[in-house]
Automatic annotation (TrEMBL):
Known EC number: 6.3.2.4
Cofactor note: Binds 2 magnesium or manganese ions per subunit.
Binding residues for Mg(2+) 1: 262, 275
Organism: Gimesia fumaroli
Swiss-Prot/TrEMBL catalytic activity: 2 D-alanine + ATP = D-alanyl-D-alanine + ADP + phosphate + H(+)
Active-site residue list: 24, 155, 286
Keyword Metal-binding recorded: yes
Protein name: D-alanine--D-alanine ligase
Matching PROSITE patterns: ATP_GRASP, DALA_DALA_LIGASE_1, DALA_DALA_LIGASE_2
Keyword Magnesium on entry: yes
Length: 320
């Protein structure tokens, strides 16, 4: 991203939505607190509202210019809160309800990736009511190792890499703890990468290195040994291929605002998209702020960009 400076926003009345009742509540509260502090420091009037404690239909929105959504996981990323705010006529950061719902479902987003020729690991959609033998049959036909994931969940919660058939039942139990639907996904052995996209422009690419088997919840939030690299010993065309695949994934889903694409690079230097996060973490140690800082964009400017984009869209909407 070459344009590292934008005009600061005039003072606004901002509501930051954080918390909620999802399994990612703890991370959401951290994101919300960080965003609230930095927006307040830039001269805005900021209120943090937790939808699990406040009825948004009863809330007085008359003095709110815009909402910054820092709700991760179910309700925040699946289109529910976006639909509520649309009904209330309140502008908000990030993707619209339909795109959020699409991106939050791994199976639905994979189908869209396949339609748009975006490389993504092959998968089978499963349900907790499925016959165990049928799931085992799917797993055998895919081959081990494979990955078991909840269909709609974030922060790698409920995700397992399954090396043998004996490990499958425990992985399924973990998956179905978080969602009634899950996916069996072909395991791609390779390095982990993330592409951050802000209003269609990419931030510097990050390679993630962790001593864990994969970039799981502990590695994301509690592990000091996780490394985030901006320098790579890779040919330029491979780096460009990772970035282009990330951008193509965003275009396939129709995302707007600030999103993060998680990918794997296999031993043949082929990138594979795992998922697109429409509300990435916004703590000071999160990946998108790290990439923004590398591009010379401070945290406050990043947050304002998220709001400027949605305010522009809101101003362009026809008024009845």
């Amino acid at each position: 991203m070459t344009d590292s400076q934008t005009n600061p926003l005039p003072p606004l009345n901002i509501v930051v939505l954080a918390g909620g009742e999802s399994a990612e509540r703890e991370i959401s509260l951290q994101s919300g607190e960080t965003v609230s502090q930095v927006l307040s420091s830039r001269g805005h009037q900021v209120k943090t509202v937790d939808p699990s404690l406040v009825d948004l239909d009863e809330y007085d929105w008359s003095n709110c210019d815009v909402v910054f959504i820092a709700l991760h996981g179910t309700y925040g990323e699946d289109g529910t809160i976006q639909s509520t705010l649309d009904r209330l006529g309140v502008p908000y950061s990030g993707c619209d309800a339909a795109t959020s719902k699409l991106a939050f479902s791994k199976s639905a987003s994979k189908e869209r990736f396949i339609q748009h020729n975006v490389s993504t690991p092959s998968y089978v959609l499963i349900h907790e009511s499925d016959n165990a033998q049928r799931i085992e049959q799917h797993a055998r036909s895919m081959g081990y190792p494979l990955v078991v994931k909840p269909d709609a969940q974030g922060s790698s919660l409920g995700v397992s890499i399954v090396q043998t058939p004996e490990e499958l039942p425990q992985a399924l139990a973990r998956c179905f703890h978080y969602d009634s639907f899950g996916i069996l996904e072909s395991a791609i052995k390779g390095t982990e990468w993330t592409v951050s996209v802000v209003d269609g422009q990419t931030l510097p690419l990050i390679q993630i290195q962790t001593p864990h088997e994969f970039f799981d919840y502990e590695a994301k939030y509690h592990e000091d040994s996780t490394q985030y690299l901006f320098e790579f010993e890779l040919p330029t065309n491979v780096i460009q291929s990772i970035i282009k695949t990330g951008v193509n994934a965003c275009e396939a889903l129709g995302t707007t605002g600030i999103v993060r694409v998680d990918l794997l690079l296999d031993r043949f230097q082929q990138p594979w998209v795992l998922e697109v996060n429409t509300i990435p973490g916004f703590t000071d140690h999160s990946l998108v702020p790290k990439a923004a800082a590398k591009a010379g964009i401070d945290f406050g400017e990043l947050c304002e960009r998220a709001l400027a984009e949605c305010l522009t869209k809101a101003a362009q909407k026809p008024h009845n």
